[in-house]
Design goal:
The protein is an alpha/beta fold and about 400 residues long. It has one domain: Vaccinia Virus protein VP39 (Rossmann fold, 3-Layer(aba) Sandwich). The chain has 9 helices and 11 strands. Strands 2, 3, 4, 5, 6, 7, 8, 9 and 10 form a 9-stranded mixed β-sheet that branches. Strands 1-11 form a two-stranded antiparallel sheet. Strand 2, helix 4 and strand 3 form a beta-alpha-beta unit. It binds S-adenosylmethionine. The site of S-adenosylmethionine (SAM) has 22 residues, from helix 3, helix 4 and strand 3. GO terms for molecular function: methyltransferase activity. Pfam families: Methyltransf_23. It comes from Ophiostoma piceae (strain UAMH 11346) (Sap stain fungus).
Length: about 400
Protein backbone atom coordinates (compact mmCIF):
# COMPACT_ATOMS: atom_id res chain seq x y z
CA UNK A 1 0.00 0.00 0.00
CA UNK A 2 1.44 3.36 -0.99
CA UNK A 3 2.04 6.16 1.44
CA UNK A 4 1.80 9.82 0.60
CA UNK A 5 4.90 11.97 1.03
CA UNK A 6 4.85 15.10 3.10
CA UNK A 7 5.25 18.17 0.99
CA UNK A 8 4.33 21.76 1.09
CA UNK A 9 3.85 21.89 -2.67
CA UNK A 10 0.13 22.46 -2.52
CA UNK A 11 -1.75 25.67 -2.30
CA UNK A 12 -4.83 27.12 -3.86
CA UNK A 13 -2.53 29.90 -5.02
CA UNK A 14 0.66 29.25 -6.97
CA UNK A 15 3.25 28.86 -4.19
CA UNK A 16 5.29 26.62 -6.45
CA UNK A 17 6.67 29.60 -8.29
CA UNK A 18 7.88 31.15 -5.05
CA UNK A 19 11.43 32.44 -5.00
CA UNK A 20 13.96 31.51 -2.35
CA UNK A 21 12.99 34.31 -0.04
CA UNK A 22 9.83 32.39 0.79
CA UNK A 23 11.97 29.76 2.47
CA UNK A 24 14.55 32.11 3.88
CA UNK A 25 15.17 32.24 7.61
CA UNK A 26 13.44 35.61 7.58
CA UNK A 27 10.16 34.03 6.67
CA UNK A 28 9.96 32.60 10.18
CA UNK A 29 9.86 36.17 11.43
CA UNK A 30 6.24 36.43 10.39
CA UNK A 31 4.40 38.03 13.26
CA UNK A 32 1.96 35.16 13.68
CA UNK A 33 1.91 31.43 13.22
CA UNK A 34 0.03 29.79 10.38
CA UNK A 35 -3.02 27.82 11.42
CA UNK A 36 -1.97 24.49 10.01
CA UNK A 37 -3.11 21.46 11.94
CA UNK A 38 0.36 21.34 13.48
CA UNK A 39 0.48 24.99 14.44
CA UNK A 40 -2.04 26.29 16.86
CA UNK A 41 -3.56 29.60 15.87
CA UNK A 42 -6.44 29.55 18.28
CA UNK A 43 -5.84 32.92 19.85
CA UNK A 44 -6.36 35.01 16.78
CA UNK A 45 -9.25 32.90 15.66
CA UNK A 46 -11.18 32.53 18.86
CA UNK A 47 -10.41 35.67 20.73
CA UNK A 48 -8.70 38.38 18.79
CA UNK A 49 -11.14 38.53 15.92
CA UNK A 50 -14.15 38.38 18.18
CA UNK A 51 -12.70 40.73 20.74
CA UNK A 52 -13.12 43.68 18.48
CA UNK A 53 -16.78 43.84 19.20
CA UNK A 54 -16.95 41.84 22.35
CA UNK A 55 -18.43 38.65 20.97
CA UNK A 56 -17.43 35.64 19.00
CA UNK A 57 -19.41 33.71 16.43
CA UNK A 58 -18.07 30.33 17.45
CA UNK A 59 -16.60 29.26 20.75
CA UNK A 60 -14.91 25.95 19.93
CA UNK A 61 -11.16 26.30 20.50
CA UNK A 62 -9.24 26.02 17.25
CA UNK A 63 -6.88 23.32 18.58
CA UNK A 64 -9.85 21.17 19.64
CA UNK A 65 -11.63 21.59 16.33
CA UNK A 66 -8.50 20.61 14.39
CA UNK A 67 -8.08 17.50 16.54
CA UNK A 68 -11.56 16.46 15.55
CA UNK A 69 -10.86 17.25 11.90
CA UNK A 70 -7.68 15.19 12.10
CA UNK A 71 -9.75 12.20 13.28
CA UNK A 72 -12.23 12.71 10.48
CA UNK A 73 -9.54 12.87 7.78
CA UNK A 74 -7.89 9.72 9.15
CA UNK A 75 -11.23 7.90 9.12
CA UNK A 76 -11.83 9.09 5.58
CA UNK A 77 -8.39 7.98 4.42
CA UNK A 78 -8.70 4.53 5.97
CA UNK A 79 -12.10 4.19 4.41
CA UNK A 80 -10.45 4.77 1.07
CA UNK A 81 -7.91 2.05 1.72
CA UNK A 82 -4.77 4.17 1.98
CA UNK A 83 -2.60 4.87 4.99
CA UNK A 84 -1.13 8.33 5.39
CA UNK A 85 1.85 9.12 7.59
CA UNK A 86 0.86 12.70 8.14
CA UNK A 87 -1.52 15.35 7.04
CA UNK A 88 0.68 17.21 4.58
CA UNK A 89 -0.40 20.37 2.80
CA UNK A 90 -1.13 18.34 -0.34
CA UNK A 91 -3.26 15.84 1.54
CA UNK A 92 -5.10 18.61 3.30
CA UNK A 93 -6.05 20.43 0.12
CA UNK A 94 -6.98 17.14 -1.54
CA UNK A 95 -9.25 16.38 1.40
CA UNK A 96 -11.10 19.72 1.14
CA UNK A 97 -11.56 19.26 -2.61
CA UNK A 98 -12.83 15.71 -2.21
CA UNK A 99 -15.14 16.71 0.63
CA UNK A 100 -16.60 19.41 -1.62
CA UNK A 101 -17.78 16.82 -4.17
CA UNK A 102 -18.92 14.19 -1.66
CA UNK A 103 -15.87 11.94 -1.97
CA UNK A 104 -15.91 11.78 -5.77
CA UNK A 105 -12.84 12.18 -7.96
CA UNK A 106 -14.52 14.50 -10.45
CA UNK A 107 -17.92 15.68 -11.63
CA UNK A 108 -17.71 14.42 -15.22
CA UNK A 109 -18.83 10.88 -16.18
CA UNK A 110 -15.22 9.65 -15.93
CA UNK A 111 -15.79 9.45 -12.19
CA UNK A 112 -17.09 5.99 -13.02
CA UNK A 113 -13.88 4.95 -14.77
CA UNK A 114 -11.68 5.64 -17.79
CA UNK A 115 -9.16 3.84 -19.96
CA UNK A 116 -6.27 6.30 -20.10
CA UNK A 117 -6.03 9.33 -17.82
CA UNK A 118 -3.68 12.31 -17.79
CA UNK A 119 -3.41 14.36 -14.56
CA UNK A 120 -1.90 17.78 -15.34
CA UNK A 121 0.34 19.21 -12.58
CA UNK A 122 -0.16 16.15 -10.39
CA UNK A 123 1.79 17.56 -7.38
CA UNK A 124 2.04 14.85 -4.71
CA UNK A 125 0.13 12.58 -7.07
CA UNK A 126 -2.55 11.92 -4.49
CA UNK A 127 -5.46 12.36 -6.91
CA UNK A 128 -3.80 10.20 -9.59
CA UNK A 129 -3.07 7.41 -7.10
CA UNK A 130 -6.55 7.44 -5.62
CA UNK A 131 -8.09 7.38 -9.10
CA UNK A 132 -5.78 4.51 -10.11
CA UNK A 133 -6.68 2.59 -6.94
CA UNK A 134 -10.39 3.09 -7.54
CA UNK A 135 -10.15 2.13 -11.23
CA UNK A 136 -7.57 -0.65 -11.69
CA UNK A 137 -8.58 -0.91 -15.35
CA UNK A 138 -7.40 2.66 -16.03
CA UNK A 139 -3.85 3.67 -16.91
CA UNK A 140 -3.20 6.92 -15.02
CA UNK A 141 -0.30 9.26 -15.87
CA UNK A 142 0.49 12.19 -13.57
CA UNK A 143 2.76 14.93 -14.93
CA UNK A 144 4.55 17.63 -13.00
CA UNK A 145 7.58 19.90 -13.17
CA UNK A 146 8.71 18.68 -9.74
CA UNK A 147 9.61 15.11 -8.76
CA UNK A 148 7.69 15.16 -5.46
CA UNK A 149 5.63 12.01 -6.09
CA UNK A 150 6.11 8.86 -3.98
CA UNK A 151 8.13 5.87 -5.13
CA UNK A 152 5.58 3.17 -4.33
CA UNK A 153 2.45 3.70 -6.32
CA UNK A 154 -0.44 1.62 -7.65
CA UNK A 155 0.73 -0.56 -10.58
CA UNK A 156 -1.52 1.30 -13.03
CA UNK A 157 -0.23 4.77 -12.02
CA UNK A 158 2.85 6.42 -13.56
CA UNK A 159 4.53 9.75 -12.97
CA UNK A 160 6.42 11.80 -15.53
CA UNK A 161 8.44 14.97 -15.03
CA UNK A 162 7.72 17.47 -17.78
CA UNK A 163 6.75 21.05 -18.52
CA UNK A 164 3.14 21.16 -19.70
CA UNK A 165 3.68 24.58 -21.27
CA UNK A 166 5.98 22.90 -23.80
CA UNK A 167 4.83 20.58 -26.58
CA UNK A 168 3.00 17.44 -25.41
CA UNK A 169 4.67 14.36 -26.82
CA UNK A 170 2.25 11.57 -25.89
CA UNK A 171 1.39 9.50 -28.96
CA UNK A 172 -1.64 7.62 -27.74
CA UNK A 173 -4.81 9.61 -26.96
CA UNK A 174 -6.40 9.83 -23.50
CA UNK A 175 -10.09 9.53 -22.72
CA UNK A 176 -9.82 11.74 -19.60
CA UNK A 177 -7.59 14.77 -18.98
CA UNK A 178 -7.76 16.19 -15.47
CA UNK A 179 -6.35 19.50 -14.21
CA UNK A 180 -6.70 20.55 -10.57
CA UNK A 181 -5.58 23.67 -8.69
CA UNK A 182 -3.47 24.98 -11.55
CA UNK A 183 -4.79 28.57 -11.61
CA UNK A 184 -1.79 30.87 -11.56
CA UNK A 185 0.53 28.11 -12.86
CA UNK A 186 0.19 28.65 -16.61
CA UNK A 187 0.87 31.71 -18.70
CA UNK A 188 -1.42 30.51 -21.51
CA UNK A 189 -4.49 28.59 -20.35
CA UNK A 190 -5.92 28.57 -23.86
CA UNK A 191 -2.99 26.56 -25.14
CA UNK A 192 -3.42 24.02 -22.29
CA UNK A 193 -7.11 23.60 -23.18
CA UNK A 194 -6.23 23.20 -26.85
CA UNK A 195 -3.57 20.59 -26.05
CA UNK A 196 -6.03 18.71 -23.84
CA UNK A 197 -8.53 18.73 -26.72
CA UNK A 198 -5.94 17.53 -29.22
CA UNK A 199 -4.78 14.67 -26.95
CA UNK A 200 -8.27 13.39 -26.14
CA UNK A 201 -10.01 10.74 -28.17
CA UNK A 202 -13.43 11.76 -29.55
CA UNK A 203 -15.96 11.53 -26.70
CA UNK A 204 -13.21 12.01 -24.09
CA UNK A 205 -13.55 14.46 -21.20
CA UNK A 206 -11.50 17.35 -19.84
CA UNK A 207 -12.17 18.52 -16.27
CA UNK A 208 -10.59 21.46 -14.43
CA UNK A 209 -11.05 22.11 -10.70
CA UNK A 210 -9.74 25.43 -9.50
CA UNK A 211 -10.03 28.36 -7.14
CA UNK A 212 -11.21 31.64 -8.65
CA UNK A 213 -10.60 35.21 -7.51
CA UNK A 214 -12.02 37.61 -6.45
CA UNK A 215 -13.53 35.93 -3.43
CA UNK A 216 -17.23 36.35 -2.63
CA UNK A 217 -19.34 37.62 0.25
CA UNK A 218 -23.13 37.60 0.41
CA UNK A 219 -23.85 39.83 3.39
CA UNK A 220 -21.48 42.79 3.26
CA UNK A 221 -19.28 41.60 6.15
CA UNK A 222 -16.23 41.69 3.84
CA UNK A 223 -15.58 45.30 2.86
CA UNK A 224 -13.55 46.87 0.10
CA UNK A 225 -11.38 48.82 2.55
CA UNK A 226 -10.54 45.70 4.63
CA UNK A 227 -6.98 44.37 4.84
CA UNK A 228 -8.19 41.04 3.49
CA UNK A 229 -9.67 42.56 0.31
CA UNK A 230 -6.57 44.74 -0.10
CA UNK A 231 -4.39 41.64 0.18
CA UNK A 232 -6.49 39.75 -2.39
CA UNK A 233 -6.55 42.67 -4.85
CA UNK A 234 -2.76 43.01 -4.64
CA UNK A 235 -2.23 39.28 -5.21
CA UNK A 236 -4.54 39.39 -8.25
CA UNK A 237 -2.78 42.47 -9.63
CA UNK A 238 0.70 41.01 -9.15
CA UNK A 239 -0.18 37.64 -10.72
CA UNK A 240 -1.69 39.44 -13.68
CA UNK A 241 1.48 41.55 -14.03
CA UNK A 242 3.52 38.34 -13.96
CA UNK A 243 1.34 36.93 -16.75
CA UNK A 244 -0.07 34.11 -14.58
CA UNK A 245 -3.54 35.24 -13.57
CA UNK A 246 -5.88 33.33 -11.28
CA UNK A 247 -8.64 32.81 -13.82
CA UNK A 248 -10.69 29.75 -12.93
CA UNK A 249 -13.79 31.52 -14.25
CA UNK A 250 -12.20 31.38 -17.73
CA UNK A 251 -12.03 27.58 -17.95
CA UNK A 252 -15.63 27.39 -19.24
CA UNK A 253 -15.14 30.04 -21.94
CA UNK A 254 -11.86 28.52 -23.07
CA UNK A 255 -13.30 25.00 -23.26
CA UNK A 256 -16.28 26.20 -25.28
CA UNK A 257 -14.05 28.19 -27.62
CA UNK A 258 -11.73 25.23 -28.15
CA UNK A 259 -14.68 23.10 -29.25
CA UNK A 260 -15.68 21.06 -26.20
CA UNK A 261 -19.40 20.34 -25.98
CA UNK A 262 -21.78 20.15 -23.02
CA UNK A 263 -19.39 22.30 -20.99
CA UNK A 264 -20.69 22.34 -17.44
CA UNK A 265 -19.54 24.70 -14.71
CA UNK A 266 -20.36 24.12 -11.03
CA UNK A 267 -19.13 26.65 -8.48
CA UNK A 268 -18.94 25.85 -4.77
CA UNK A 269 -18.33 28.17 -1.84
CA UNK A 270 -15.34 27.42 0.34
CA UNK A 271 -15.95 29.46 3.49
CA UNK A 272 -12.83 31.25 4.68
CA UNK A 273 -13.21 29.77 8.16
CA UNK A 274 -15.82 28.01 10.27
CA UNK A 275 -18.34 30.86 10.06
CA UNK A 276 -21.25 28.93 8.45
CA UNK A 277 -23.99 27.35 10.51
CA UNK A 278 -24.39 24.28 8.26
CA UNK A 279 -22.09 21.46 9.49
CA UNK A 280 -20.72 20.44 6.06
CA UNK A 281 -19.75 24.01 5.24
CA UNK A 282 -18.44 24.67 8.73
CA UNK A 283 -16.13 21.68 8.25
CA UNK A 284 -15.15 22.85 4.76
CA UNK A 285 -14.39 26.26 6.26
CA UNK A 286 -12.20 24.76 8.97
CA UNK A 287 -10.19 22.82 6.41
CA UNK A 288 -9.97 25.69 3.97
CA UNK A 289 -8.71 27.91 6.80
CA UNK A 290 -6.01 25.41 7.73
CA UNK A 291 -5.07 25.18 4.05
CA UNK A 292 -5.11 28.91 3.23
CA UNK A 293 -3.62 30.06 6.50
CA UNK A 294 -0.42 28.13 5.85
CA UNK A 295 -0.41 29.12 2.15
CA UNK A 296 -0.93 32.81 2.79
CA UNK A 297 2.70 33.80 3.31
CA UNK A 298 4.38 31.77 0.54
CA UNK A 299 1.66 32.57 -1.97
CA UNK A 300 1.97 36.31 -1.32
CA UNK A 301 5.75 36.66 -1.16
CA UNK A 302 6.65 35.74 -4.72
CA UNK A 303 3.95 37.71 -6.54
CA UNK A 304 4.31 40.85 -4.48
CA UNK A 305 8.11 40.93 -4.37
CA UNK A 306 8.50 39.96 -8.02
CA UNK A 307 5.37 41.44 -9.55
CA UNK A 308 5.01 44.67 -7.57
CA UNK A 309 8.52 45.21 -6.16
CA UNK A 310 7.50 45.03 -2.50
CA UNK A 311 10.10 44.25 0.18
CA UNK A 312 9.94 41.11 2.28
CA UNK A 313 9.03 43.11 5.39
CA UNK A 314 6.24 44.99 3.63
CA UNK A 315 4.74 41.68 2.51
CA UNK A 316 4.96 40.24 6.02
CA UNK A 317 3.01 43.17 7.46
CA UNK A 318 0.28 42.78 4.82
CA UNK A 319 0.09 39.00 5.34
CA UNK A 320 -0.22 39.43 9.08
CA UNK A 321 -3.14 41.85 8.73
CA UNK A 322 -4.87 39.68 6.10
CA UNK A 323 -4.44 36.57 8.25
CA UNK A 324 -6.35 38.14 11.14
CA UNK A 325 -9.33 38.74 8.89
CA UNK A 326 -9.02 35.35 7.20
CA UNK A 327 -9.55 33.82 10.66
CA UNK A 328 -12.31 36.20 11.75
CA UNK A 329 -15.66 34.34 11.92
CA UNK A 330 -17.51 37.67 11.76
CA UNK A 331 -16.34 38.09 8.15
CA UNK A 332 -18.49 35.78 6.00
CA UNK A 333 -16.29 35.51 2.94
CA UNK A 334 -15.76 32.50 0.67
CA UNK A 335 -13.40 31.31 -2.03
CA UNK A 336 -15.27 30.33 -5.22
CA UNK A 337 -14.22 26.86 -6.36
CA UNK A 338 -14.83 26.13 -10.04
CA UNK A 339 -15.45 22.59 -11.30
CA UNK A 340 -15.71 22.69 -15.09
CA UNK A 341 -15.88 19.81 -17.56
CA UNK A 342 -16.58 19.32 -21.24
CA UNK A 343 -16.60 16.54 -23.84
CA UNK A 344 -14.69 16.37 -27.09
CA UNK A 345 -17.25 15.90 -29.89
CA UNK A 346 -17.40 12.49 -31.52
CA UNK A 347 -16.45 14.14 -34.81
CA UNK A 348 -13.86 16.41 -33.12
CA UNK A 349 -10.46 16.63 -34.72
CA UNK A 350 -8.42 19.79 -34.11
CA UNK A 351 -9.20 22.44 -31.43
CA UNK A 352 -10.37 25.91 -32.42
CA UNK A 353 -8.30 28.96 -31.40
CA UNK A 354 -9.06 30.41 -27.97
CA UNK A 355 -9.03 34.02 -26.78
CA UNK A 356 -6.62 35.70 -24.39
CA UNK A 357 -7.70 35.89 -20.76
CA UNK A 358 -8.74 39.49 -20.02
CA UNK A 359 -7.53 41.32 -16.93
CA UNK A 360 -9.93 40.74 -14.07
CA UNK A 361 -10.78 43.77 -11.94
CA UNK A 362 -11.48 42.72 -8.33
CA UNK A 363 -14.13 45.47 -8.05
CA UNK A 364 -15.93 45.39 -4.70
CA UNK A 365 -16.84 42.39 -2.51
CA UNK A 366 -20.11 40.89 -3.71
CA UNK A 367 -21.99 37.58 -3.94
CA UNK A 368 -20.86 35.12 -6.59
CA UNK A 369 -24.29 34.51 -8.03
CA UNK A 370 -24.01 30.95 -9.31
CA UNK A 371 -22.00 29.61 -6.34
CA UNK A 372 -23.44 26.79 -4.21
CA UNK A 373 -25.06 26.64 -1.80
CA UNK A 374 -27.08 29.71 -2.77
CA UNK A 375 -27.97 30.39 0.84
CA UNK A 376 -25.12 29.85 3.27
CA UNK A 377 -26.12 31.15 6.65
CA UNK A 378 -23.59 32.14 9.29
CA UNK A 379 -23.54 30.68 12.78
CA UNK A 380 -25.63 32.97 14.96
CA UNK A 381 -23.45 35.32 16.97
CA UNK A 382 -23.25 34.47 20.66
CA UNK A 383 -22.58 36.85 23.47
CA UNK A 384 -19.36 36.11 25.33
CA UNK A 385 -19.79 34.89 28.89
CA UNK A 386 -18.77 37.60 31.35
CA UNK A 387 -16.90 36.92 34.59
CA UNK A 388 -20.11 37.51 36.57
CA UNK A 389 -21.92 34.67 34.75
C1 LIG B 1 -1.10 23.62 -6.55
S1 LIG B 1 -0.24 22.24 -7.16
C2 LIG B 1 -1.60 21.22 -7.63
C3 LIG B 1 -1.31 19.77 -7.40
C4 LIG B 1 -2.38 18.79 -7.84
N1 LIG B 1 -2.95 19.09 -9.13
C5 LIG B 1 -3.47 18.67 -6.81
O1 LIG B 1 -4.55 19.20 -6.99
O2 LIG B 1 -3.23 18.01 -5.77
C6 LIG B 1 0.36 22.81 -8.71
C7 LIG B 1 1.33 21.83 -9.33
O3 LIG B 1 1.52 22.20 -10.69
C8 LIG B 1 2.87 21.97 -11.04
N2 LIG B 1 3.16 22.79 -12.24
C9 LIG B 1 3.15 24.14 -12.34
N3 LIG B 1 3.45 24.52 -13.60
C10 LIG B 1 3.65 23.37 -14.31
C11 LIG B 1 4.01 23.09 -15.65
N4 LIG B 1 4.23 24.08 -16.53
N5 LIG B 1 4.16 21.80 -16.03
C12 LIG B 1 3.96 20.80 -15.15
N6 LIG B 1 3.62 21.00 -13.86
C13 LIG B 1 3.47 22.27 -13.44
C14 LIG B 1 3.62 22.39 -9.80
O4 LIG B 1 4.92 21.83 -9.76
C15 LIG B 1 2.71 21.86 -8.71
O5 LIG B 1 3.05 20.57 -8.28
Amino acid sequence: MASIPETSAASPLPVDNVDDTANSPNSSEAPDTPATPDHDADDADDHEAGDDDGDSAVDVPFRESLTSLRSSIMAYQHENGRTYHAMSAGNLQHHVLTLTIEGNHCLCPKNDGAKRVLDLGTGTGIWAMEYADAHPEAEVIGVDLSPVQPEFVPPNCYFEIDDLEKEWTWNRPFDFVFCRMMAGSFSDYGSIVQKAFAHLEPGGYFEAQDMGLPMGCDDGTLTKDSDFWTWMSLVMESLQKMGRPIAAQMWKVLMEEAGFEDVTETVYKWPTNRWPREPKYKELGQWSLANMDSALEPSTLAPLTRGLGWTHDEVMVLVSKARKQLRDPNIHAYWPMYFVHGRKPLNGTEPNPTSQIPSIDPGTPQPIKNALPHVLEPEPRRLKKTQAQ
